[in-house]
Amino acid sequence: MNGHEDQPKPRQRLNPRYSPRPGDVPDIADPRLRLRPFVLTAGHATGAEKSIAPETQIVSTDYGYANWGVLHFERRDIVSLCAVHQSVAEICAKLSLHLGVVRILVGDLARDGYLSIHVPHEDSTHSIDTIMRVLNGLRAIS
Amino acid sequence: MVSEPSLERNVEAAARQRRPPLPIKIVVAGGFAVGKTTTVASISEILPLTTEAVMTEAAAGVDDLSQVPGKTTTTVALDFGRISIDDDLTLYLFGTPGQDRFGFMWNDIVQGALGALVIVDSRRMDECYPAVDYFEKYHLPFVVAVNQFDGNLAHDLGAIRWALAVGEQVPVITFDARSRVSVRDALIVVLHLALERAQR
User: Which fold has domain B23-51+79-199?
Assistant: First the structure.
């Protein structure tokens, strides 16, 4: 999944509780990140989440809605929150998670059947009909 | 007696029946402290929320950041707001980070946007130049909106247009970021531009 064979080996940290496993790829460039985002994402730095934009709508599947209780921590929070559709940006803000982390977790949770990702076709978001509807909606604001 | 949790559950179940809305996006850009968050707050139905993202200085002109050795990163906050147009359509406003030197990871925010509002403080014109450069380069329709903090402009609109060196097709307007109606009108100008493009 993470395909980073050509990256340098993870640096051994002074913290004795930290012992990287094979496949862990800490972000060595930013000491402020520490280990945390990579723990959250199980070591993924990139994934199949390229299509997930900040405004992309996420909602739990019926399976996810019924089974979020088996998940832990951030995954549980995300699937639980997405009982009602949310944008990725709202997930980040409400759970205080980084955009990059949420994109990876959402990608994983969708792959595992807990979430569905609604990626609109650009034809529909940029159509004359859509723009006219937004214009009319804005004009109604006073 | 209906207990509170089951009522919530019913509301949630009803909300689950609805399809997620189509998200429409407009970017609000500009330099540091020109009124981007104020603009979003004036019209958003939710208080502007903040999303943190890790930005990469080396991002300018580089597609795959994971391939950049020795990259330096910083955490910045993105403000955004939301306007529900109807049950099926939601307009999102994303404010770009104020620090222009990190501006060029904007791809995530700008990708798929209908257009942009570039907010200008007429006393600090040059702070909006990176945003103008960016939107020109990626052919995103944009409107230059000069924020009238106190009803006065340091330069008239003609001088501002000259300084920005933007073409006739770019509207240069004044607005008040604190006024909902004024922000609404500025967004309508952005949408008219997007409409012209869609009709071509």
Answer: Rossmann fold (3.40.50)
